[in-house]
Amino acid sequence: MTTKRLSGPEGVAEAARLLASGEAVAIPTETVYGLACILTDEAVARVYAAKGRPSDNPLIVHIAEPEELHAAALDVPEMADVLARRFWPGPLTLVLPKRPHIPASVTAGLDTVAARCPAHEVCRAVIRATGQPLAAPSANCSGSPSPTTARHVLDDLDGRVAAVLDGGPCAVGLESTVLSLTGNRPRLLRPGGVTREELEAVIGPVEADKAVFSAPDARETPSAPGMKYRHYAPNTPLVILRGPVKAARAYALAQPGRCGVLCMEDEAAAFEGLPVVQYTYQTLFNALRRIDTIGLEQVFARVPEPTGIGLAVANRLQKAAGYKKVNI
Ligand code: TXA
Ligand code: MG
């Protein structure tokens, strides 16, 4: 199929028309681009097929107004409304018991639904114009870094989806925070655009699922099914390199083959003499995509402190590296 390039108000109208007819359309959000569809089995199947996504990994349901949460979820606790008032529209996803009309194809058979009201006005306009909530995973091929520009979406999905609606680069650049409110205590399943500290300031202690920090155990069922898959990985081998920056530089220089470093601006000068790819939290996924274009045999990633937005960055880098790390 030919993937239409859409933009502006006519683009929103055309995207909504295609979506309502059951097509998969990539749309901007403030976090990353999503590959959207209406909540029918047929449309959802198109999204999974285009991405090559395993069918046991559920989709987030996107709503245009915070109040619509009650139409998707059951037994919504007061805490969910408090969080919605404080952080929606925005990069927070809430997991709650699902209403029966939400199809099992969307939730991968789980009895819960993940819902989010995005802050990107183009995204909300598309949902309103379609007249119904939209399910959407990130608009990348399964396993590759999430797309933060329409160009990234086309690099992965050109010819595989009906259209891409260009809404400019994503302001947050990392996916939403996924918080489960189905147990006795709120549980962080995926760190993201809203930090754990920001959540705790509003609702008190938030337990972090162990998948936030460490490799999933193949014998266990993870709380967010998506956490067990390899993710965000460039083709170039990536290894986390921990320790003082001088020792890290010496280590990287001593390795055979053409090695590079992925680091933030504050360390870039210290890795002089090595090819350096710089990232900020907004440009991390773009940097992971760029790594493959510069012909390196191995890249060493420097990881920020796991506090604030650094927790989400550290989580994505660990996954991108397949949890491979060197401590010096
Ligand atoms: O920022 C975002 O969240 C972006 C934009 C497009 O909204 N979406 C996104 O979707 O990152 P995706 O599919 O790439 O990641 C959704 C994550 C997965 O790890 C999935 O397993 C988890 O949310 N998830 C979805 N429904 C769930 C549920 N009912 N229970 C637990 N985890 C769920
Ligand atoms: Mg994704």
Q: In angstroms, what is the radius of gyration?
A: 20 Å
Which sequence of SSEs, written as H and E, runs from N to C? EHEEHEHHEHEHEHEEEHEEHEHEHEHE
Q: What is the name of the CATH superfamily of the largest domain?
A: DHBP synthase
Main β-sheet description: 7 strands, mixed
Mean pLDDT across residues: 96
Number of strands: 16
Hetero groups bound?
threonylcarbamoyladenylate, magnesium ion
Spatial strand order of the main sheet: 7-4-6-5-9-10-11
Low-confidence stretches: none
Number of domains: 2
- CATH architecture classification of the largest domain: Alpha-Beta Complex
Quaternary form: single chain
Q: Report the structural category.
A: alpha/beta
CATH class of the largest domain: Alpha Beta
Gap from first CA to last CA: 50 Å
- Structural shape: globular
Report the portion of residues in β strands: 15-25%
Helix content: 25-40%
Please work out how many helical segments DSSP would assign.
12
CATH topology of the largest domain: DHBP synthase
Would you kindly provide a written description of the structure presented here, covering whatever features stand out?
- With 328 residues, the protein is α/β, with parallel strands linked by helices.
- It has 2 domains: 4-212, Alpha-Beta Complex (DHBP synthase), CATH 3.90.870.10; 238-327, 3-Layer(aba) Sandwich (Rossmann fold), CATH 3.40.50.
- 31% of the residues lie in helices and 18% in strands.
- It has a 7-stranded mixed beta sheet, covered by helices on one side.
- Helix 1 (8-20) packs across helix 6 (121-130).
- The longest helix is centred in the first third of the chain and has 13 residues, at 8-20.
- The mean pLDDT is 96.
- Magnesium ion (MG) binds next to loops.
